[in-house]
Amino acid sequence: MHIILAIDSFKGCLTSEEVEAIFAQALTARGATVRSLPMSDGGEGMLEAFISALHGQIVPAEVHDPLMRPLLASYGIAPDGTAVIETAKACGLTLMTPEERNPLIATTYGVGELIAHALRRGCKRFIIGLGGSGTSDAGKGMLQALTDSFAPHGTIHDVLSRETARCQFTLASDVRNPLCGREGAAFIFAPQKGATPQMVEELDRRARQFADSSARLMGKDASTQPGAGAAGGLGYAFMQYFNATAQSGADLLLDLTAFDQQLERADLVITGEGHADRQTLMGKLPERILQRARKHHVPVWLVAGQTDDAEELIAAGFSRVDKLTPEGMNLQEAIKPETTRQNIFRWIDRNF
Q1: Contact indicator for 286, 271 with CB cutoff of 8 Å
Q2: 36-64 CB burial, b ≥16 within 10 A, e <16
């Protein structure tokens, strides 16, 4: 049996590669031929998944975290010089404790430092993952870091005309929200990053003010483009200042791994994520995998740590929807890596 593993990370527990390694070990012991494809939709684990697909290398860089503390972060460079940047490596929510989270002061400055590092290495093409941010500064911090790096006595215009004029930026993100308003970055995402209702109003006001001044400066306004609200408005800064294009992170990675061609030799695809429910069907990684596999008439099993809305997921086309966590096991126990490993082996024992 030829099985493709295309499983997203189990957030807070195991990376995509780690989850798939456990599945692969158990399945090959039962005689299956397994192909593991590390997965990400642009969020957690994006760097490792994309660099694996591109056969690139991980590069360390000294930057600043969202609270401007020194941080050793990393990004990737593919053999063709494409830089892969997971913005959460420099401005991620997990870089701060719950008590430290305050999107009024958290900054994307470190993201700009990662880009500057890659530019100095000669990179001209960039794939930017926008998931998991702990910021809501509309990308102002990123732009300031680039200005400080390349034009300390000038403006962002100097950077645009010299350093990034011939660069191409592709945003790996499934977020479709605009920058401002009730569906924008502040109102939809900032509460998850520690913002109070009063902070949300202030963040939205700041974003509108920045968009207005940027429109006058650049002669265009990208604030209403789908995806401008991603990563606390970081998507907007890339679109407004670097003419970035947004693409489904899942589809981008599936194209890079030649997923459709590999389906021609597959008997089964196993996909999954930490928690699957009806929101999985809103363009998340398992749903994108399902749509592609159906065209090749390859069944897809959805296996997650926890599942809800299983009937809806089955109706959407998944051949099976299973959860790994036994009934009655509490979340803190379930998300321990060793517990997850045991639960995967137990599930495979029952099903193969």
Answers
A1: yes
A2: bbbbbbbbbbbbbbbbbbbebeebebebb
- Would you place residue 92 in the very low, low, confident or very high pLDDT band (cuts 50, 70, 90)? very high
The torsion angles phi and psi of 60, rounded to 5 degrees, stand at: -80, 150
Query: Which tokens in the block code for residue 72?
Result: 């050793």
Alpha-helical regions (H) of the chain: 16-28, 46-54, 88-91, 109-120, 140-150, 156-162, 185-189, 197-218, 230-242, 249-256, 259-263, 285-295, 310-316, 331-334, 337-351
- At 109-157, the pLDDT tens digits run 999 999 999 999 999 999 999 989 999 999 999 999 999 999 999 999 9
Distance separating alpha carbons of residues 303 and 270, to the nearest angstrom = 7
**Taking the alpha carbons of 185, 187, 189, 191 in that order, is the dihedral positive or negative?**
positive
Among 231, 184, 188, 193, smallest CA distance to 102 is for 193
Three-state secondary structure call for residue 137? coil
Query: How close are the terminal C-alpha atoms of the chain, in Å?
Result: 11
Query: Residue 235's closest CA among 102, 137, 93, 316?
Result: 137
Instruction: Give buried/exposed letters for 277-292 (b at 16+ CB in 10 A, else e).
Output: beebbebbbbbbbbbb
Query: Using CA atoms, how far apart are residues 303 and 148, in angstroms rounded to an integer?
Result: 46
Widest pairwise Cα distance in the chain = 65
Q: Between β-strands 33-36 and 2-7, what pairing exists: parallel, antiparallel or unpaired?
A: parallel
Q: How far apart are CA 290 and CA 261, in angstroms?
A: 15
Contacts with 294 (C-beta within 8 Å, 6 or more apart), sequence order: 300, 317
Query: Hey, is 110 helix, strand or coil?
Result: helix
For the stretch 296-315, pLDDT in tens is 999 999 999 999 999 999 99
